[in-house]
Amino acid sequence: DLRKEIIELSSNEILNLVLEELDLRRIISAWGNTAQRLENVDVIRKFSIQYEENCNRLHTAASLGGFLLWLSNMQERSEDTQSSGEGPDAVNVLTYHRSKGLEYPIVILGNLENNLRDQVFGISIQPISTLKNEDTVHKDSFGEGGVNQHSEVNLDDILGNRWLRFWVNPYADLFKNTELEERINDSAAKKEATQAGLSEEARVLYVGVTRARDYLIFPTSQTPTRWLNRTWHAGKDDFPTIEPGNETPFVWQERYLTKDFEEFSYGKDFGYAESRTENIEFIEERKGKKSFLTYVIDIEKEIATSDGRYLKPDAESATIPNNGYAPPLFLKEDAQPQRVAKALDSYLTAAPTNDRLEVAKNIITRYDLSEMIDYQTFVKNGDGFYDYINKTYAVKVLLHRYPIKAHFDGRLLDSDIDILIETTHNSWVLIVNNDLSGDIKKIRTEASRLTTKLSWLKKAFLKNYPTVEPTQIDTCLHFFMLGMLVKMDV
Hints:
alpha+beta; six-stranded mixed sheet; two-stranded parallel sheet; 11 helices
């Protein structure tokens, strides 16, 4: 049934669709070890994202079949790992390097009995300063003048001022007690390798020790903790660091840290401990797909009914005057009505000033309308509008773009009232601007469409000002391109 829906979906989208449609998370949660199983689901989702990112880098198409092959290759390389398990009962086994940057309540440091890694065999990068001490390297092999040296890093010659040394161990595991071992141990190369190994050990052990938040455990056995000893005693691995007692050699805030010492004995075989299972409390069963209302109310399309539904309104009556406060704007044939409407709307917002002519000139210039309309038309239109509302309403305060917010049934109305007037008669006028132009016969249709918006704005205003009565509010539509103010009964 899903095949027709996945034609244009990516592998990641298909995977998520299957997880949701089959409710797989709820199914696998009933199998126990729920936290781990749910985290494993997230891991395979992560794999699908990695596959698509890889395809993007290689400029190849990502497909469902390709994703399955990707998973198959990961399985062959043993890279299809499970989630690391970050639950309260999880035990994370990591290398010291992998633990960097992490923190755990309890940390157990392993491999403290390891020997120092100070082998000189194999490949190593050596600085030029050691070249003169190596009898096995001939300067002639680097060309005339010796090795190419750079005082600065050269990305075109990464190994400049350095060289690769490869020493082969001809005896393999039989290296002990040979003349070569004696010569190696007495060489400067061995001393450098030993010092480098000690420094690296100290850095790595520091990473492990600082991962602990509450408890740090140093497990010991009959084998000495050579690694810890070397780090604490400048390379001496036969001098014990941890011994039974009440104190450690570690100092913190001018006092020695105490420790607890406990001895355990373990057999060769360990029993299997069942993991604890906890009941998972799910929310109620899904009801299936259904439509939901948006959080923000669309005040131009929705109207609230008594039973809580939101519907488109029916046609509403509008009181359309016989004449407007100014004649409709006459536009030239090549004029762009939308640009003219934006410019006139801007002018009406700024018009109640003493320098109206200058404001009109600036706005027409800014909108590049000099060839389309005369700026005196703007002034005539604006004067007509403000003269009309001052005569019709005893204006006390006039505000433009008045922000209004209110909640209805948990949903948000967030809008502006284009013009809000407070009169001296303790009443209010809410005006919504409209850029209708051309045929004046379209006013009734446009007025019917905007009835919903006026209704919502009036409801929001009454909710914000509960002392105002509905009869104290007039609602109007302002068709400023036609020079007409239409009173609406909402």
